Amino acid sequence: MIVHVKSFEDYDRAYRSELSILPYAAKIHSSFLMCEVAVRAVPPVLLQGPA
Fold it and tell me: b/e map of 8-36 (b: 16 or more CB within 10 Å)?
């Protein structure tokens, strides 16, 4: 399972409320990858209406 979160606090919240209560999950191993995906001065336009 891959879980995308914005911060360690968000992961902790997801772990406590969702992951730790999964049935048949005796152990949970977590690894973290932190990287900057993009730096933008202005957010990209994802959807653009008619001109």
Answer: eeebeeeeeeeeeeeeeeeeeeeeeeeee
Alpha helices (H) in the chain, listed in sequence order: 8-17
| Beta carbons within 8 Å of 17's beta carbon, 6+ residues apart | none
The answer to whether 5 and 14 are in contact (CB under 8 A) is yes
The Cα–Cα gap between 25 and 14 comes to: 15
For residue range 1-51, list pLDDT tens digits in order. Answer: 778 888 889 889 988 888 888 888 888 888 887 777 777 777 667 767 676
Question: What whole-number distance in Å separates Cα of residue 4 and Cα of residue 7?
Answer: 9
